[in-house]
Amino acid sequence: MNAIEARELKKSFNGVAAVNGVSFSVREGEVFGFLGPNGAGKTTTIRMLVGLLKPDGGKAFIMGYDVIKNPIEARELIGVVPEESNPYPDLSAWDNLRLVGMLYALPGKEIRERGMSLLKLLGIEEVKDRKVRGFSKGMKQKLLIAMALIGGPRVLFLDEPTSGLDVFSVRKIHELISELSREGVTVFLTTHNVEEAGAICDRVAIIDKGRIVAMGSPDELKIKTGGYLYLSVVFDREVGGDVKEILGDYEFKLGGRKLLVVCKEPGEVIGRIVDYARAKGLKIERVRTSEPSMAEVFMRIVGAK
Ligand SMILES: Nc1ncnc2c1ncn2[C@@H]1O[C@H](COP(=O)(O)OP(=O)(O)O)[C@@H](O)[C@H]1O
Ligand SMILES: [Mg+2]
């Protein structure tokens, strides 16, 4: 059984499609990333998956439960950290956490044990008795995550969990996500940060203008760009625009002494460049090939449409 399943989800606001037929499934224990630029439809999708927003079309399932037809069963299985939410500022971190535990009707002992272990895991146990009002953004976000986890959800939804946080908080949250996944918790997160998606997700769906434009593991997404490599060559002096003639259909960028060529088989291109350099009396100082980064993959996929 899939932990999350979206089938042809659709939602429009004032006649404009925010989510336009989104389908995917997430296995139990998987860390699944929804990667896309601002306004792509990430938050709208999350809101439909957790039953906060009724889709115009399509269906969403959590552990097999239809979120519209069986909302109680579905909601019992999930924890959510919405994009812009705040703990109660006038309560302490601990009281915020306890309040959620009580809403879940958890026994006091369980709230204490689970609550403390979550605060420790997130590194905010020392501030548990302080009012949230004075918390940094990172501290608030960690508390919100603890609040989403106190009920022991099987599926955790995080909407841009690390956006605007310092590197230490980001690392802590990434560590927690890996730990949850090891325990079999399914994590669905949205992000507009390509490197984050590539680093912590088992699979990523790239969403743009309400549609999924690519889906796969970070490695597969690199392959899906056609297995291209970047070949960079540095000469001892400036290269003329006539290098275009030997490069034919290859995509390239020329900047002073540097030439960057996008290619599948660098060997053949290097041969041409060596011939060119010899003919022009240029010396090649450095040759390097590199794989496209996740950011480049993203730009290629989103930009290519
Ligand atoms: N409640 C709403 N009313 C009107 N338009 C909305 C509403 N929520 C989202 N939208 C629009 O839908 C599109 C997708 O928004 P959203 O899902 O928030 O994107 P993301 O989370 O990827 O940044 C945007 O164009 C946004 O302006
Ligand atoms: Mg959003």
Task: Please explain how this structure is put together.
- The chain has 305 residues and is an alpha/beta fold.
- The protein has 2 domains: 4-221, P-loop containing nucleotide triphosphate hydrolases (Rossmann fold, 3-Layer(aba) Sandwich), CATH 3.40.50.300; 225-303, Alpha-Beta Plaits (2-Layer Sandwich).
- Helix content is 37%, strand content 28%.
- The protein has 11 helices and 14 strands.
- The strands form 3 sheets. A 6-stranded mixed beta sheet has the order 6-7-8-3-9-10, sandwiched between helices.
- Helix 3 crosses helix 4 (108-121) and helix 3 packs parallel to helix 5.
- The longest helix has 16 residues, at 167-182.
- The radius of gyration is 24 Å and the shape is elongated.
- The model has no long low-confidence stretch (mean pLDDT 93).
- Adenosine-5'-diphosphate binds at residues 13, 18, 36, 38-44.
Summarize the structure.
The protein has helices at 42-49, 71-76, 93-103, 108-121, 137-149, 167-182, 194-200, 218-224, 243-247, 266-280, 294-303, and strands at residues 4-13, 16-26, 31-35, 57-62, 65-66, 78-81, 155-159, 186-191, 203-208, 211-216, 229-235, 251-255, 258-263, 284-290.
Major β-sheet, in short? Answer: 6 strands, mixed
List the secondary-structure elements in sequence, H or E: EEEHEEHEHHHEHEHEEHEHEEHEH
Per DSSP E runs of 2 or more residues, the count of β-strands stands at 14
CATH fold annotation of the largest domain: Rossmann fold
CATH class label of the largest domain: Alpha Beta
Discrete helix count: 11
- Named CATH architecture of the largest domain: 3-Layer(aba) Sandwich
Q: How much is the radius of gyration in Å?
A: 24 Å
